[in-house]
């Protein structure tokens, strides 16, 4: 008999509601949930084909253990696998201290999984060496919000897209990366022809199809662009002086800085026309409401924090925040990167939007968990963590639901690190990822449609994820694997004491975790599973007295800073460290395709999803092909200072001469080479520690066959 189970899509941060059609054993179909406020029944090509991605040949089905480097892994049972893991982790901690182990987890995990991992690392192991691939996704936005507004809280809702008069989309190909939101935007523009849409992107992407203005800036010049817009806003008097005076601080310093960012200077840095810059400033400065949407083009940068702050400055200067259709609104890449931020799943964070560096925050969480203290040292962020592995400081590494052997920058170093690490555990649903190759212990995890919990989407909306069918083979839910390890480690690290991990369900984890949000900016301490089931997905903070979530933050113009004022951040534009030169004369940009997701572990199992783009290729402007005597489709060698790849070349008018584009999805399962990140740099932003995945100097030459 066919049954329908309401759940949430497992791909991007739009967080669409899905209805899973299934029988007792198989998922048969997927439809958009008309009642879900993120998508009202719409799905994109990825969400609509979720039921076609259940290929069991790609799945990890049984625990597999390798008893020595160089040996093959063999099937084992869960008890042996977890006993071995606990013994190695316990012994490593005993011999080398808690910071000799590390956990690298994922924005694909559910909030309950995240919480279990965090409690394990901080309360039991006593290390802050726990970081997430959200570091590669949103950590610059976290810093941007916190520095400017006082809390890591995107203030807007999806309904602001329909309500806005002027949208600035920066570093985001929404048409591919957040397709259902893009459909909402297309509809809004059709309903409201006066709406103005500006797209800032070095490439002319499909998102530009609905733009009134496309600014094809030179890569990495966003800070100069935003300062240049502010310069014109100041010159023309398009500022909200009252808002600046009453609700912000730091404007005078910024004013002094942006005086130098004249249209002439900015047009030179950004490679755009002064007239276009003036037009964009006019659209922003004269619009009744102004919304900005951004994604990896700003965040995945060694200047990501400065870019985020410079964009938020525009909202503060025009008073365009806290009202309908207005505000800075980051689009989250992963389905639960937000849940990771909330549960404290970056090395510098603790649950409930707390900080490891804050002693009072550590004490609050320690008391809640019933432990004496939490570690106060600085944990390793993603790039630092793998460097720590490579240098031998990390001797046991636990990776869950992510594929750093494809997604981290400077892949040669990452592969060296994973090969050298004495003990690598990979907790994964798909056995095909590059990282699984390095697993000394592979633990099969349940996947979408097989596990339950919750996620938070880009607009702070918490949705239930429900299981429809049993996990295949011996796969187990992620939270259960973590709690199994934790209880075994407790026997070594806290003998004779009551367990901290007495959880028998994701609901038990959620109920404990939500208590840690009480009194914090994101407070959803009163939001139970039962209430979500009754009221539908809810946005935080959740008001218990009104039984309602909060659509828009800062409507009262009060910000969660010491003095209640938002802060202007004055930072100069700094040219990117790796500029084009004679040896590497092209600037590489990376990004997503419409029908693929991350490293293709799931989407790569559905033939339909290769219909849009069949293979990895490097896109260059036709002039750059001509000057190199290349023809469309020819195999080329792509080289950076760090590595090389062989790919077919595509002539693409949408790219400016001197630039290049490679999609991020293909790894060494599909390519000669380790995937695009063999070319990228391990540089990271000094504040957010988010790596530079978007910009690298490269050279392209024909492949010479012997
Ligand atoms: Fe899933 Fe994102 Fe597509 Fe919605 S827009 S169906 S969440 S991939």
CATH architecture of the largest domain: 3-Layer(aba) Sandwich
Can you list the strand order of the major beta sheet?
5-4-18-17-16-6-7
Q: Radius of gyration from the CA trace?
A: 24 Å
| Percent helix range | 25-40%
Percentage of β-strand residues:
15-25%
Query: Which molecules are bound in this entry?
Result: iron/sulfur cluster
CATH first level of the largest domain: Alpha Beta
Tell me the domain tally: 4
Distance between the ends: 60 Å
Task: Tell me the CATH topology of the largest domain.
Answer: Rossmann fold
The structural class is alpha/beta
The average pLDDT score comes to 96
pLDDT < 50 stretches: none
By DSSP, the count of extended strands is: 28
Task: Give a brief outline of the structure.
The strands form seven sheets. This protein has a seven-stranded mixed sheet, sandwiched between helices. The protein contains 23 helices and 28 strands.
How would you summarize the topology of this molecule?
Blueprint: E1 3-8, E2 17-22, E3 27-32, H1 45-48, E4 64-65, E5 74-75, H2 78-96, E6 101-105, H3 111-125, E7 130-132, H4 139-149, H5 159-163, E8 166-170, H6 174-177, H7 179-191, E9 196-200, E10 213-215, H8 222-236, H9 241-247, E11 248-249, H10 251-258, H11 263-270, H12 274-286, E12 290-294, H13 296-299, H14 304-318, E13 327-330, H15 337-343, E14 349-350, E15 354-355, H16 359-369, H17 382-390, E16 396-400, H18 404-407, H19 411-420, E17 423-428, E18 441-444, E19 453-456, E20 461-465, H20 478-493, H21 506-515, H22 529-535, E21 538-539, E22 566-567, E23 586-591, E24 618-620, H23 622-627, E25 635-639, E26 644-651, E27 659-663, E28 696-702
Helix pairs in contact: 2-20, 3-15, 3-20, 3-21, 4-14, 8-11, 8-12, 8-14, 17-19
